[in-house]
From TrEMBL:
Organism from which the protein derives: Stappia indica
Transmembrane segments: 20-42, 322-344
PANTHER family: ADENYLATE CYCLASE, TERMINAL-DIFFERENTIATION SPECIFIC, ADENYLATE CYCLASE, TERMINAL-DIFFERENTIATION SPECIFIC-RELATED
Every Guanylate cyclase domain range: 426-558
Protein name: Adenylate cyclase
Keyword Ligase recorded: no
Domain HAMP: 345-399
Length: 635
């Protein structure tokens, strides 16, 4: 009991690998140093956060504003320059006379998508650029649907270039600017240039900084005309919203909060540049956003808003760059840590390997134990070679000592379990009928193969029921139950092993008959008695075995099988003592027909007659003993 308690305590005690212990200790030491350095870097970065965000707000919005103005101002400059040319020409009834100048202007200015000249009566002629890049002439009155899309702004002869409302045509969105055409001081027509907003869409996508950032342009306070993440708001069917679209129709929660969120007060530098920074709190539990916007006037009836918003919890790119500078300072430390970890792993790898191999040795699974190679470290090399020699010796011993016995002795402790003592055990003795005459026609190799296969069958059945193989005697085997580990049901387990051997023999014989081989017939003796069990021998030659008259009686029962049923495939004879123990260990009952008494006989070499029973070898070992379903052997 003390040994069991010690073993239980050892199992509960937590153990750690040397690699883990050394690596953890070293990692903690370096980790504390890294955290201190990182803490200083974070503290400095936090102090610079608002300054960086101010710079970010100004740079981002100004860049977007500059690109928008560059794109649209080219159109206004183009119509102003053309106005000076057209004002000097005589505009008669043939507007087609201007076709050459319009084509040249559109061709020379890639930002222009259309140029239209309208007279005071509303009739117009123009040139537009198709998606393929080809220029086509058109007359407004010939395309009434297109004529309805755009209404000329109210202008006088002295009006400057005026931007009109956005127009959607052919699935594309256009901004347009108009200048008056005059003769003398009279207004005689209008010159309008149209510019596609698609270029602005490409611009906002270029300025998008990643999945946490969104760039947008809003016209007239509520019309989204460019959005870098428009695909994120696709309908369930996958259809992407077509711009322009209102904020409500788009479903962008961050843009919906722009009108109700107040500018933050701690961004004075951004405010001075006309940029407003807002904290867009989302009420439905989603992430909060930080927006940077700037209002631009002069490109239509209403004002335009350009800006960007990003997830407030994400770190801005500038802050990340500052952290990067701190990381550069830590690279030397990380490199030292990496090299140290590699050295630790290199130094402890042999110990981990021998620990892994030792686990297989402890489990007596020598087939998995690998030969340890030589090592450049002298002490480790000596341990490896000693381990290899030990494994070789254990493998050799395990070859000649039954594996089941070897494992039991190792588990129970050889010093105590192998001490000779008297015990009540159950034995079986097996023999192949007529093996001598059978082997006369076989070679030595064939004989060895048959015996090896036969003994493998016997050993498997014995070990399956927890028995111990004592020895092989010619073509026979002696096995016993109840030692070295004690068990109360040793007779019952031995009987199940006999029936298991019988089932395996029948299966093997069936295969042999199918392949034209020979059938093997067996006799088994089963007896329970008191014997001496333990180490028996002298000097350095010891054998763990059983000694006593009960063993001899078991062998006599096996031999008596030739008189009971000399031609049967399997004969299992048991003594009255063994059957009584089976009865007692099974609750007093065994399956009906599992055993029958064959009489009282005086066996060879015995002075007294004993009752002999024959077990039915066709009984399923699992149903040998079923309380309530059999017969009382005592009767």
């Amino acid at each position: 009991m003390d040994d069991q308690r010690v073993e239980q305590v050892a199992r509960k005690r937590r153990v750690y690998s040397i690699t883990w212990v050394v690596g953890t200790a070293f990692g903690l030491l370096i980790g504390v140093s890294m955290l201190l350095v990182l803490g200083l870097a974070v503290s400095a970065n936090m102090q610079n956060t608002f300054s960086l965000l101010n710079d970010k707000a100004v740079l981002t919005t100004n860049s977007l504003e500059r690109r928008l103005r560059d794109h649209l101002d080219l159109a206004s400059q183009a119509v102003v320059q053309l106005k000076t040319v057209f004002d000097e020409r005589e505009l008669g009834d043939r507007l087609e006379d201007l076709r050459g100048e319009l084509i040249a202007a559109v061709h020379a200015n890639p930002s222009l998508d259309a140029l239209v000249v309208n007279d005071a009566a509303g009739d117009g002629f123009g040139i537009y650029r198709s998606p393929t890049g080809k220029l086509w002439p058109f007359r407004r009155q010939q395309i009434p649907e297109e004529a309805k899309l755009y209404a000329l702004p109210q202008m006088t002869a002295n009006s400057p270039a005026t931007w009109g409302p956005l127009v959607t045509s052919g699935g594309m969105l256009y901004a347009n600017v108009t200048v008056p055409l005059v003769r003398g001081e009279a207004l005689i027509g209008y010159l309008t240039a149209a510019v596609s907003i698609d270029e602005l869409g490409r611009t906002v996508r270029q300025l998008d900084e990643g999945e946490h950032s969104t760039v947008f342009i809003i016209a007239n306070g509520n019309e989204v005309i460019a959005h870098s993440d428009i695909e994120d708001f696709a309908a369930p069917g996958g259809e992407v919203p077509r711009l322009p679209v209102t904020i409500e129709q788009l479903g962008d929660r961050a843009l919906a909060r722009l009108a109700t969120s107040k500018p933050m007060d701690n961004f004075e530098q951004a405010s001075a540049a006309g940029v407003e920074v807002r904290d867009l709190d989302i009420d439905d539990g989603g992430p909060d956003y930080l927006s940077m916007t700037k209002v631009i006037a002069g490109y239509g009836p209403g004002v335009w808003t350009v800006g960007q918003y990003y997830v407030a919890s994400s770190i801005s790119r500038e802050v990340q760059r500052l952290f990067g500078s701190a990381v550069v300072g830590l690279l030397s430390i990380l490199l030292a840590v990496g090299l140290s970890v590699l050295l630790v792993r290199r130094a402890t790898r042999p110990l981990a390997e021998i620990s892994r191999q030792a686990r297989f040795v402890g489990e007596l699974d020598f087939d998995k134990v690998e030969h340890l190679p030589r090592n450049m470290v002298r002490e480790i090399d000596q341990v490896f070679q000693a381990f290899n020699a030990m494994v070789s010796g254990l493998r050799a011993m395990n070859t000649y000592v039954p594996r089941s016995l070897f494992r039991k002795l190792m588990r129970l402790g050889v010093d105590q379990a192998a001490v000779a003592s008297e015990r009540d055990l159950t034995f079986i003795f097996t023999d192949i009928v007529g093996f001598t005459s059978m082997s006369e026609n076989l070679t030595a190799a064939q004989t060895a193969d048959i015996l090896n296969e036969h003994f493998a069958l016997l050993v498997a059945a014995v070990e399956r029921e927890g028995g111990t193989v004592d020895k092989f005697i010619g073509d026979g085997m002696l096995a016993f139950w109840g030692a070295p580990d004690e068990r109360a049901d040793h007779a019952l387990a031995a009987a199940r092993a006999c029936l298991g051997i019988a089932a395996a023999l029948r299966e093997g014989n069936a295969k042999a008959l199918a392949n034209g081989g020979k059938v093997v017939r067996m006799r088994i003796g089963l007896h329970t008695g008191r014997v001496v069990v333990g180490n028996v021998g002298a000097l350095d030659r010891w054998n763990y075995t059983v000694v006593g008259d009960a063993v001899n009686l078991c062998e006599r029962l096996q031999s008596f099988g030739r008189d009971v049923a000399p031609q049967d495939e399997m004969v299992i004879l048991a003594s009255d003592t063994a059957v009584s123990r089976i009865q007692a260990q099974s609750g007093g009952m065994i399956a009906a027909g599992a055993a029958r008494k064959v009489g009282t006989h005086r066996l060879r070499g015995r002075s007294e007659a004993i009752a002999v029973w024959r077990l039915d070898d066709a009984v399923d070992p699992e149903h040998l003993c079923i309380p309530g379903s059999g017969i009382d052997l005592a009767g």
